[in-house]
Design goal:
The complex is a heterodimer.
Chain A lengths: L2 H13 L19 H15 L14 H14 L2 H5 L5
Chain B lengths: L5 E9 L6 H9 L6 E2 L14 E2 L12 H4 L4 H16 L12 E6 L5 H13 L9 H5 L3 H10 L5 E4 L5 H15 L4 E8 L4 H9 L30 E9 H6 L6 E10 L9 H15 L8 E3 L6 H15 L8 E2 L2 H4 L6 H15 L1 E2 L22 E2 L5 E6 L5 E8 L12
Parallel strand pairs in B: 4-5, 4-6, 9-10, 9-13
Antiparallel strand pairs in B: 1-7, 1-8, 2-3, 6-7, 8-14, 11-12, 13-14
Helix pairs in contact in B: 1-13, 3-6, 7-13, 10-11
The chains are: A mainly alpha, B alpha/beta.
């Protein structure tokens, strides 16, 4: 499962976002996510991928696509996570 | 300068026994109890077989979308819904009012107790090392007041009072003073409390102040003023009123349910838990003085009446000291026998009950008063509700651990009496 699909699952299940709203261009604000919701989302991503985000989160993430790029970057640096991402959330 | 008059122009509740003041009052007059065993369906109520309490069947997901809901503790959810109901009941359109002249005061004893409880569970039971980012904002005591102001755009004074069981009586009284003094024209004021979580229940249990469940009839476990009383029963909920300057209310054609005429505040200064007749009496006298009323003018007292061994004797003595011979004539009842003790929300809920008494010229009974206590020898309306008393002014007592005693008086206004069942 790619990262966008995983994000979509989390946003639909935990944030009440409609699936068709989750596109790379959609802004996080338009989905009703504020800065604390973003922190919480990162916790969920940590749980989902079994990792600990120790590096500073980029402060300029505006869109779903930005989050995908950030998470994919984490996975690239830790290739075994790509296997985990196939798990259902 | 004569203080401005305070009209009660709206009220709303999320309460055991009712989603509206009318439904609540109807149940109280009928002597129905909302007290029951707390079983497991409510996720927070995980002690099985549960202790007793007065829960509200309330699911916040019916009122708030998911992203908002995660930012709201149960106490804020109930507060927001009760405040919405009060504002709707008062037909208040804030877009037509000077928002900086409108504010909100809330009383709560425990704030976001569910969030705090869930946090401990996550850390200590599940072994996690982190909590949701909203934990602080959900748990803080001033969250309900903040959210109400944000939702309705109330730019004026915004305060939260935490004086244990008198919190929301204080919120109402202090809000009334802001209106009287001219600082505000309209205040949304009330309280919210959600203590039916395991940690809070266990803490109360440890104080040995909770009623022993009546095994045959758990709904009859709370027996204020009875010789057989064993303690209080915790309840949850929220209750709010719209308090408005008299001319302001008339100018917008508001329906005036009653006038908040008196508010008195006094401290026990004895012990953190022990009430005193002197402290309670001082608060009642202060409220009478504020209202400009003689004791004989009070036609009904909604007692604090917790059904603890101490409170009921001390409150009875205080009423006798303040009212003299009239103490034996004025009906006194404790509706906590049915809706339980809502702690920080109790004062607002019971003030609204008192206003309903004026509107319907009826006083609800004290239920389950099966065996009289010789030390509690007033007329506690034990036989059932009474109507047609010609009620003009009624008193609502709220006393508290910590000793902050607050007393409110509501008086009938022309047109406040209603025979219909409209809200």
């Amino acid at each position: 499962m790619n990262t966008l699909c995983t994000l979509e699952q989390i946003l639909v299940r935990d944030y009440g976002v409609a699936a068709n709203q989750v596109t790379p261009d959609a802004t996080l604000e338009s989905l009703g996510l504020d800065s604390l919701s973003m922190l919480e989302l990162m916790f969920k991503i940590e749980d989902r991928y079994g990792l600990k985000i120790t590096e500073d989160m980029p402060t300029d993430m505006q869109t779903v696509g930005d989050v995908v790029v950030f998470v994919d970057g984490l996975i690239t640096r830790k290739p075994e996570l790509a296997v985990l991402s196939a798990r259902p959330p | 300068m004569k203080p401005r008059r305070v009209a009660v122009t709206g009220f709303g509740v999320v309460a055991p026994l009712g989603d509206s003041p009318e439904e609540l009052f109807e149940n109280l007059v009928a002597g129905r109890s909302g007290i029951a065993y707390l079983h497991s369906p409510e996720p927070a109520l995980d002690a099985a077989p549960g202790p007793i309490g007065a829960p509200v069947r309330f699911d916040g997901s019916g009122f708030f979308p998911a992203p908002r809901l995660r930012m709201l503790d149960r106490v804020s959810q109930m507060a927001l819904v009760a405040a919405r109901r009060a504002i709707a009941n008062g037909k208040v359109d804030f877009s037509a009012l000077a928002r900086e002249r409108c504010g909100v005061f809330v009383g709560t004893g425990g704030g976001g107790a569910t969030t705090t409880s869930d946090g401990y569970r996550t850390l200590f039971e599940e072994g996690s090392d982190r909590l949701p980012p909203y934990s602080v904002l959900n748990a803080m005591h001033n969250a309900p007041a903040a959210w109400i102001a944000i939702e309705h755009g109330l730019e004026g004074p915004n305060l939260t009072y935490s004086t244990a069981c008198s919190s929301s009586a204080v919120a109402l009284g202090e809000a009334a003073r802001r209106v009287q003094s001219g600082e505000a024209d309209l205040m949304v004021a009330g309280g919210a409390e959600t203590p039916l979580v395991r940690g809070v229940l266990k803490a109360w249990e440890a104080m040995r102040t909770l009623a022993v469940p009546d095994a045959r009839n758990p709904s009859a476990s709370c027996r204020p003023f009875a010789r057989t009383r064993t303690g209080l029963v915790l309840g949850e909920g929220a209750a709010f009123a719209v308090l408005e300057e008299w001319q302001h209310a008339l100018a917008r054609g508001a329906r005036i349910h009653a006038e908040l005429t008196g508010y008195g505040l006094a401290s026990d200064i004895a012990h953190i838990t022990r009430p005193t007749a002197e402290g309670q009496g001082r608060a009642m006298r202060a409220a009478l003085a504020a209202a400009g009323l003689e004791p004989e003018s009070i036609d009904y007292i909604n007692a604090h009446g917790t059904a603890t061994l101490q409170n009921d004797v001390v409150e009875t003595a205080a009423i006798k000291a303040v009212f003299g011979a009239h103490a034996y004539r004025v009906p006194v009842s404790s509706t906590k026998s049915m809706h339980g003790h809502l702690l920080g929300a109790a004062g607002a809920l019971e003030f609204i009950v008192a206003v309903m008494c004026l509107r319907h010229d009826t006083v609800p009974p004290t239920m389950h008063l099966d065996v009289a206590d010789p030390e509690c020898d007033l007329d506690y309306v034990a036989g059932g509700a009474r109507s047609g008393l010609g009620l003009r002014s009624v008193m609502s007592n709220s006393f508290a651990f910590g000793g902050t005693n607050a007393v409110l008086i509501a008086s009938a206004s022309a047109g406040s009496r209603s025979r219909s069942t409209e809200q």
